[in-house]
Structures are given as C-alpha cells and as structure tokens.
Design goal:
five-stranded mixed sheet; Nucleotidyltransferase, domain 5; about 350 residues
C-alpha cells in the first residue's frame, strides 16, 4: 500500500472525523464516528475511537490498513490536547499507532480556526460538549486555555448548559429556586415526569449523565419566554466573549482585524439575541474583528493545516474545502448508517 499524502483527523467529545487526501487536495475517503469520550488521562477508548474513524475513512477510500501508515503526514486536531503533558502523552499514542509517518498534534480549537479562515492567524473558539479557545498571532505566537473544566476556571458548553438546566429545574420543583418552565420541559425531554426522577436516574446509573449535553437546544428554546433559561443563554454568550477577549488581549490583537471563528453545536442556535450579545462583546474590545460562525466541519481545518505542512497549492486547499462537507461525512459512518 502506498500511503496517501495526508491523513486529517478532528476529534471532540461527541464525534471523530477522519479523511484521507492526495497532495492535490482530492479527498480519497472520509468518515465520521460518534464518540463517547475524549482524552483526559490517557483513556485508551479515545485512541480506539480515532482508530475506528481512520479505518472507516480508509475503507471509504478503498484502502485496507495493513499495519503501515495510511498517510505520509497526519494532522490530528483533538479535544483533550490541552496541556504540554497531554500533548506528549497523546503524541506518543499516535506515534505508536502508526497511522501516519509524520503525526502532527494540535488542539481541536486550531482546526476550528483554520476551517473558518484562509489566514494562518486569528482566534478559534469551540463550544460543543465543552468549551475552549485558542489564538494565533500574525508572528506565530499562540495562546490557549487549559480547558480542564471547573478546576481550571471553565464554564460553558452543551454539558454545562444541560447540567444547569436540570439544576434549575430541580430547584424550581422543590421551592429552593425561581419557578421556570425548565421544571416541566427537562424531564419531559428525557421521557420522565419530574426533575427529581432525572436526578435519581443519573444517580442510580439508569441514565448516563452525558445525555444532559443534549438539553442545550432545549435551553435556547425555553429562553424565548423564560427568564431563568434566558439567564443561562446570556451567561453562555458572556463566557464566549470573555474567552475571545482574553485571547486577543494576550496576543495583542485588539488593534488588528483578526477572524474570530466560532465552532461547535451551541452556535447552531438560531437565537439572535445570543449571537448579537456575542458580537457586541467582541466588538467592544476588538472593533475590527470579523466574527464567523463555522458551518463546515472542523475536519476541514485539520485538512488545511496538513496541506499547509506539505506545501500544497491554493487550488489543493480549495478542492479539499469543497469536498469535505457534513453531507460527505454523514454519508459514511463506521456503523454503515447515514445520520439523520
């Protein structure tokens, strides 16, 4: 088997996408795998999910992995690659797996940034299951947050919004908090009658806590008429602004015109007040910034970074951008079923 020029992988808390490309940007194969975990302490399930996605992309390309590298260069943009120690540990795992002759590791926020701009600098923020932000200055300096959850000062993302929705629902029901429509809507969404039943199901192991991240769209829906839900949405917007504001200040971009790329499921919300609050907050610190909500898969960014590494042409970049769509990834999943 002759390896392809490039293997690109984007992995987050809910999915892993992989693609195999030629040097000219032609996509030979691509696949999406639904994920249940991302790396937090060397979890072997994390690398196993990446391997599943890579094998599926190889199959889509008509290539069977035979122990040799699938790509000359492999760019892996992964959630969980947050600290230098994380980078070293994950990099060792990628090297041992042998999926690419030259594996390059980046945090998944860098894929979001590169997917949303043709520049090689700017700010990328992910708000999906969790939340993180990174930036690159025109001179190559970088900044990123540790993103280890509440122990590193983080707040936000679908899991946080869903967890807080349940928190407010329970307090509404038992009288400790303000009354909110979430009291009815949260258990209803999960097929139960009362918020306490949701808490008991999670506590007893009958319901996986991960389902709380699926409540994020519900929070936005209820926020149209409910003050408690609206406060959660506003807090999420403010946290986005804080992360971007800190990043542009740390990299001294406030007087420049960076592209600020926002990616992740939370930004699929159609709540105009949410997006307007973010735009106003970022403009207050960096007036010339261009804010872009990413509509293409972050895997595009991993592919762009890989094509950058191998010195591919602008035409190659454009060809890969055009081919790597959500539709392409959804049409080939590891379990052979199309997404709905």
């Amino acid at each position: 088997m002759t390896p392809a020029a490039l293997l690109a992988v984007d992995g987050g808390g809910s999915k892993v996408d992989a693609a195999v490309l030629r040097r000219d940007g032609t996509v030979l194969g691509a696949a999406r795998v639904r994920a249940s975990a991302f790396d937090t302490a060397g979890d072997p399930a994390f690398l196993a999910q990446i391997g599943t996605a890579i094998r599926a992309a190889g199959e889509d390309a008509g290539i069977v992995l035979d122990g040799r590298p699938l790509g000359d260069v492999g760019v892996f943009c992964l959630a969980g690659a947050d600290l230098p120690a994380d980078d070293r540990r994950i990099a060792r795992g990628l090297a041992a797996a042998g999926w690419a002759s030259d594996p390059v590791l980046r945090n998944d926020t860098f894929a979001v940034l590169r997917a949303g701009t043709d520049r090689d600098w700017g700010v990328g923020l992910v708000c999906g299951s969790g939340m993180n932000c990174s930036g690159v200055a025109p001179d190559g300096r970088t900044f990123r947050f540790p993103a280890m959850g509440d122990i590193s000062g983080d707040w936000g993302g679908g899991s946080e919004l869903g967890g807080m929705a349940l928190w407010h629902a329970i307090r509404s029901a038992d009288g400790r908090g303000e009354r909110t429509e979430l009291e009815r809507r949260v258990p209803e969404y999960l097929g139960l009658r009362r918020p306490r039943q949701v808490a008991e199901a999670i506590h007893g192991g009958r319901l996986d806590r991960v389902v709380l991240r699926d409540l994020s769209p519900l929070v936005f829906e209820v926020a149209r008429t409910d003050r408690v839900a609206r406060a959660l949405v506003d807090r999420q917007a403010d946290e986005v602004v804080l992360m971007v504001r800190t990043t542009v200040r740390r990299l001294r971009l406030t007087r420049l015109d960076p592209d600020v790329v926002l990616g992740g499921g939370v930004f699929r919300a159609t709540d105009e007040a949410f997006h307007a609050r973010i735009r106003r907050g970022i403009a207050a610190v960096c007036p010339a910034a261009t804010i872009r909500v990413l509509t293409s898969p972050p895997l595009v960014g991993a592919a762009m970074l890989g094509l950058d590494v191998i010195g591919a042409s602008a035409a190659a970049h454009g060809r890969a951008r055009a081919a790597l769509t959500h539709e392409r990834l959804s049409s080939h999943t590891a379990n052979g079923r199309k997404e709905r």
